[in-house]
Design brief:
Layout lengths: L12 E6 L6 E6 L2 E7 L1 H4 L9 H10 L9 E4 L3 H15 L4 H13 L4 H11 L7 E4 L2 H10 L6 E7 L6 E9 L2 E9 L4 H11 L8 H7 L8 H8 E3 L5 E3 L15 H6 L13 H29 L3 E5 L6 H9 L5 E4 L6 H15 L24 H10 L5 E2 L2 H13 L4 E4 L13 E5 L6 H9 L9 E5 L3 H4 L11 E4 L17 H5 L15 E7 L5 H14 L3 E6 L11 H10 L4 E4 L2 E4 L12 H4 L4
Parallel strand pairs: 1-4, 4-5, 6-11, 11-12, 14-20, 16-18
Antiparallel strand pairs: 1-2, 2-3, 6-7, 7-8, 9-10, 13-21, 14-15, 15-19, 16-19, 17-18, 20-21
Helix pairs in contact: 6-13, 7-11, 11-12, 15-19
């Protein structure tokens, strides 16, 4: 707290920044309201871009009409010096084994991370925004906790944050009341539930810090047959949810890999090659670590309630993006309600850091109204006006049709009902990893072939990956067992029993491709092999255009539900600009592109001449 003393007057413009690890982002909180927030990757087109978020910063400040000298506070989402001291302490403990890692990490710190205020202030000054009046730091998990509680609809709540590691903390339990929050318990590095999950992500052939959701999607194909082996060898689990890792099996302390040869021996061989066939071993490992993670999260949540006595829970940190665990936790009834930060990973730390200053440090009150949060449906990114879109289309000779709002909804709904895949680009871009209707690809969930088609011909990704449904809020109960309200696609539920077909587990051996393509319900494109679905509900206030499209689709088909997946292809970020959207449209199996009120048909477009390296796209070069 002493670090924040002497600010003087209340800040008006607070710029939160996360950077230099992964998912760099910026957020502008202006007089307590989120004006703008965005990840750097959307502008640079480099997925999980860790660099200083110059484009995101400029966007946020321009959205708030912030002029030179008007930035009151810049707040960075963690304390770099504390993190550096943790790295040095770790290398000291494992020396000389960590020498290669040391030689890679320390120069990066000396070049960039030791000079964060200088880099940021230099950019702001050069870009014409002037030097901020004050530069501050929060702790990494305080930023996560603030991002979870302060935008939530709860006046008071327990707070749980879980990720890989911040400075020293890897998980925290906290308490939020009014405009204040405090951390009550911490788990410290190197013992980390997030690192344990990431170790299995790496071992199963997926990329750490980006492939964890693939592991979660793979889990239902397997059996949790390795749970006891994990518990007996890799970690001790306490009733409060904390864990203590057996570091003999991990390589992230003294090497450049998450696991080592002892881990290989425990699970029957080396890690899966990223482009090789997925076997039953990887399926069972995914199921096992998912079960272990869920149990640890449930215990942590139970302990948080015992410590705080609260009936509401807020979640953030990378592990809070595990929507399977989130959905099961909500269904336990342990809490009356749960709110999860839509940008739960490091990007959301920029938002949390800004809110921490505004509420906790400066003491500004919060307004909490029912279930309404302060995230503005997470639609906090850039928006392009109709005249900007039309200029792009005209200048590039792109054929298009212009529609009124009512006729647009009818056209899109009819196209989807006819089996077409539609790219939607409208309004402000989403903040966080999920597309929620403004940068989305929509398709018919009733189609038995749609999941494979979208994975292979549109998204160019692994065939086992499930797709999420977007459903009219008032119709959610007719499709799903429990969820009635899930606006951010962060909760998994089960498809209702009366909609299901035969058992999701094959009685005879099937290939993964055959298993994926076996219909499991009357909405097969969004029904995972265990009858689960990652649900997004929508109402008119949240997203009027998507709501109207769903209503028209329901009138045509009887189903107020569609597939909603992010508007991007594998290895690329979600599209940001009309140019990004058009490029993705032309590269993929999308049939119809909606840019605001302009509709583009693939068959009418000129020949696409861009040279595209498919081997590079699939990571084969």
């Amino acid at each position: 707290m002493d670090a924040f003393a002497g600010i003087g007057r209340f800040p008006v413009n607070i710029l939160g920044i996360s950077a230099f690890y992964h998912d760099s982002a910026a957020c502008l909180v202006q007089d307590g309201r989120i004006v703008a927030a965005a990840q750097e990757e959307r502008f640079t087109r480099k997925k999980h871009d860790p660099r200083l978020p110059k484009h995101a910063i400029a966007y946020c400040l321009d959205a708030g009409s912030v002029r030179s000298g008007e930035i009151d506070v810049v707040v960075f989402y963690e304390k770099p010096l504390t993190k550096f001291l943790r790295l040095l302490a770790t290398y000291r403990e494992v020396a000389p084994k960590g020498w290669k890692s040391f030689l890679m990490a320390v120069p990066a710190w000396l070049k960039d991370k030791a000079w964060i205020p200088h880099h940021i202030e230099s950019f702001l000054n050069t870009a014409g925004y002037g030097v901020p009046k004050r530069f501050l730091f929060t702790e990494h998990h305080h930023s996560h906790a603030a991002s979870a509680f302060f935008p939530s609809p709860f006046a008071e709540a327990a707070i749980v944050t879980v990720d890989g590691v911040g400075e020293w903390a890897t998980s925290t339990i906290g308490l939020g009341e009014g405009n204040r929050m405090r951390v009550l318990r911490e788990m410290h590095f190197p013992h980390s539930l997030g690192m344990l999950y990431s170790a299995f992500t790496y071992f199963c052939g997926f990329k750490v810090n980006s492939g964890e959701y693939k592991l979660m999607g793979l889990a239902p194909y397997g059996e949790p047959r390795y749970v006891e082996k994990i518990r007996n060898n890799l970690a001790d689990f306490s009733e409060d949810g904390s864990i203590r890792l057996n570091l003999e099996y991990f390589g992230y302390l003294d090497g450049l890999k998450m696991t080592n040869v002892h881990f290989d021996e425990l699970f029957g061989g080396p890690p899966r090659n990223p482009e090789s066939e997925i076997t039953s071993r990887e399926m069972d490992l995914a199921a096992s670590i998912q079960a272990v993670t869920e149990d640890a999260v449930f215990k942590m949540a139970r302990y948080a309630q015992a410590l705080t006595g609260k009936r509401q829970l807020c979640l953030a940190g990378g592990v809070a993006l595990n929507c399977v665990a989130n959905g099961k936790l909500l269904r336990t009834g342990l809490y009356d309600d749960i709110w999860i930060q839509p940008a739960a990973g490091d990007a959301g730390g920029a938002l949390g850091a800004a809110f921490y200053i505004w509420h906790h440090v400066q003491g500004h009150p919060r307004d909490c109204h029912g279930r309404q949060d302060r995230m503005q449906a997470a639609l906090l990114g850039p928006e392009f006006q109709p005249e900007q879109v039309e200029t792009f289309l005209e200048q590039n000779g792109v054929p298009y049709h212009k529609y009124t709002e009512s006729s647009l909804g009818q056209t899109v709904a009819r196209s989807i009902a006819d089996g077409k895949v539609v790219g939607i680009f409208q309004g402000r871009m989403e903040f966080g990893p999920r597309a929620l209707g403004n940068r989305s690809i929509l398709a018919d969930a009733r189609s038995e072939k749609m999941q494979s088609y979208l994975n292979l011909a549109t998204k160019f990704r692994e065939s086992f990956r499930p797709f999420a449904p977007i459903v009219l809020e008032e119709d959610a109960a007719s499709f799903f067992e429990f969820l009635k309200f899930s606006p951010y696609m962060l909760l998994v539920d089960q498809v209702r029993a009366e909609r299901r077909y035969a058992s999701p587990k094959p009685e005879t051996a099937l290939s993964l491709k055959e298993w994926v393509n076996t219909p499991r319900s009357d909405v097969p494109a969004i029904t995972h092999v265990d009858y689960s679905a990652r649900v997004q509900t929508v109402n008119r206030e949240q997203n009027a255009r998507i709501y109207d499209i769903l209503q028209e689709f329901k009138r045509l088909t009887g189903y107020g539900l569609m597939v909603n997946t992010s508007f991007n292809v594998r290895s690329e970020p979600i599209v940001c600009t009309p140019e990004d959207a058009y490029r993705c449209f032309m590269r993929t199996g999308i049939d119809l592109l909606v840019l605001n009120n302009f509709v583009l048909h693939k068959a009418e477009q000129p020949e696409w001449t861009e040279q595209f390296n498919w081997r590079e796209e699939f990571g084969l070069d």
